[in-house]
Structure formats: C-alpha cells, structure tokens
Amino acid sequence: MSQTTISQYSAAAFAGMLDGVGPKNIRSYAAEEAIPVAYPVKLGTDAAKEVLKATAGAGVIGFAIHDHAREQNGAGLVQFAATDSVNVLTQGRFWINTSDAVVAGAVANLTTATGFLTDAAVAAGIEAFTQVSVKFVTATTGPGLALVEVK
User: Fold this and answer.
1) For residues 19 and 94, is the Cβ–Cβ distance under 8 A?
2) 3 has a pLDDT exceeding 80
3) Domains delineated in the chain
4) What average pLDDT score do residues 26-43 get?
5) How far, in Å, are 10, 84, 110, 150 from residue 133 at the CA level?
C-alpha cells in the first residue's frame, strides 16, 4: 500500500521496532503461518526451524521483529507470510502495542485475543509468559506503544 499522506511530526517508534540501546539476541525462523510484526511466537512443527503465532503465554520464545522488508497490507497490517524468514527477538528491547495503560517497571502479560501486552493481573484472556521474562521500560496512559525488555 502506498503512502498517501505525511505528517509534520512522526511517532517516536512503531510496533516491532528495536530499541537502539543494549545487547540483543535475534534468531531467524521460517514462519509456519502468517505472523504479524511484534507478535509473540512459539516454536512450530519443526522446532529447530519454524515458528507459529503464540495463542498463550506458555511456550512463547520471543517476538517477531520488524525487518523493513514488509509492506502494510490494505487492512494496515504488517506481517510475515507463511514460509517467510522471521526475525525473533529472544533478548533485548523493542516497542510493542499495549491493550491498556501500563506502568514502567511492571511485568508484562499477554492479552491472548490480540497479542498485545498488558500489566493487568493474570485472568481470563490474560496469561503470563513462562519461558521469557518481559517487563515494561516505558509507561502508557492508555492503549498504545510501550518499550519492553525481553530476557
């Protein structure tokens, strides 16, 4: 989709964008299905080579990171197609969408319906990560972008 408008001031970041500070660990896998950028992923059928969208906090190994080779589709979604090479951040900082207001320093949990993160307590539709640790580095006053650190 081509760009039809431009703003004088751009956003500070976008979902899936790496933070320039600190060490990072990024591994490449093949997408076993379409995976949106900044979405949590789990190992796929071939655990050594493939990843799938995570639908639960358990099993998440990292997050699909933007690689500047993707275009927005007509619905405004940026994603990796099935069989594309996916960059998976397993350690480091990046920007991600939140489902509500979050507090810096809080532990991040997964909103299973959207793949967004929240600092709300584990409940129906909100699950804790079991294989990675994710904390908010910045706060939001509502749904939006926050910087998180994955360990």
Assistant:
1) yes
2) no
3) 25-150 (2.40.300)
4) 97
5) 30, 26, 11, 6
pLDDT at 2: 62
d(C-alpha 146, C-alpha 15), whole Å: 9
Residue type (1 letter), 115: G
pTM of the model: 0.92
**Quick one: three-class SS letters along the chain?**
CCCCCCCCCCCCCCCCCECCCCCCEEEEEEECCCEECCCEEEECCCCCCEEEECCCCCCEEEEECCCCCCCCCCCCCCEECCCCEEEEEEEEEEEEEECCCECCCCECEEECCCCCEECCCCECCEECCCCCCEEECCCECCCEEEEEEEC
Sequence length of the chain is: 151
Instruction: List the structure tokens of 71.
Output: 């275009």
Exposed/middle/buried for residue 28 (C-beta within 10 Å: 0-12, 13-18, 19+): exposed
- Model confidence pLDDT, tens digit, residues 51-103: 999 999 999 999 999 988 888 888 878 999 999 999 999 999 999 999 999 99
